[in-house]
Amino acid sequence: MVWDGGSNARPRIPGNSMSVMGRVEKGFDYFEKVLNLICRIFVGVIVAIIFYAVVMRYVFQRPPFWAEELSRFIFIWIIMLGAVLVTREQSHIEFVILIDILPKRLKFILVNLIRLLMILFCWVMIQQGLKIYPIVAEASSPTFGISMGWLYLSIPVGGLLMGICIVENIVKSIVKR
Asked: What are the sequence ranges of the domains in the chain?
């Protein structure tokens, strides 16, 4: 196991850069950087929108009618995309006291069983998100008049991306073993 030396010391699969696993991991790393950049941009946009709305409301007494809805749309996407990042980094909240005292083999089995349950949850998110999408896609947002499907599409997209990251984590744990 090799560490990348960054602030989030994640295990890396050793090997030359031309190996399939190395290229796949490099692709996932690039995907993570892009997703991280998108989330940072979204946070900056929300801060700017809310700052603008507060100034317009309390200084000029002319609040923008669109600020609340746009910030809500962006915030929901930040939540889902942030959940994908947390899943890939394996930095979600967990109780490790009991897992840490288990023998190595049992720990491996339990951690991967938990990951399989997480994949099941992601499947439910994808399935239910796609089930509700046609219903909500017909509704329009009150301010912009765009389809509410864009808002609810974050559920299956987040579930799919989290599921892919969980599969990556399972493969890494098997290869590293």
From this structure: 2-176
